[in-house]
Amino acid sequence: SRKYVLGVHMRTHTGERPYSCVRCNASFVTKYNLAEHMRSHTGERPFSCVHCKASFARKGSLVMHIRTHTGERPFSCVHCNASFVHKTYLDRHVRIHTGDRCFSCVHCNASFVTKFYLDQHMRSHTGERPFSCVHCSASFRRKENLVTHIRTHTGERPFSCVQCNASFVQKKYLERHVRTHTGERPFSCVHCNASFSQKCNLKDHISRRHKNEKP
């Protein structure tokens, strides 16, 4: 109803967050947001992809994920040809053009293009680790680290290679593996003609071969 919508909106002015988590200190403006948050504790992922085995705690995350299958990128930058699966990613990208880093840390000189990254950074000062594993005592500063960790318990490896039977717990590991098929070596040395498939190998090369050289 309009009255409910107005009540929720007014909380953005008053700061009222009447729905509190029983497992941590988090609180929320709406009951729906609390329910979403609780899944970070329970590990529940009720929204499943029809194209692969991926599942998500939030419907919005599923919608974005499906676009990786369909190729849909409905949010386009007016400054360049970049396009994105989510408006949040577009807003963040646009700040690369404008130079706007409007979210500043009160403890150091760091500043960020989104509040999300500021909140993540703040945990490096506070030590807060709000994302807890339901299977063991591990806890994490970032939700995506918890999701990856839980896969060590469940055995889930949702990122599969299309050229062989290999599968991985994180997309970055799949991307690194795919280079063993394609031969791509995107990390190039600024001192010589050497190139590498992994950034860590480039760093190792520079430390061993060009330790005292300046680029």
Automatic annotation (TrEMBL):
GO terms for cellular component: nucleus. It is found in: Nucleus. Pfam families: zf-C2H2. Its main location: nucleus. SMART domains: ZnF_C2H2. Belongs to the krueppel C2H2-type zinc-finger protein family. May be involved in transcriptional regulation. PANTHER family: ODD-SKIPPED - RELATED, ZINC FINGER PROTEIN 208-LIKE. This is Putative c2h2-type zn-finger protein. It comes from Rhipicephalus pulchellus (Yellow backed tick).
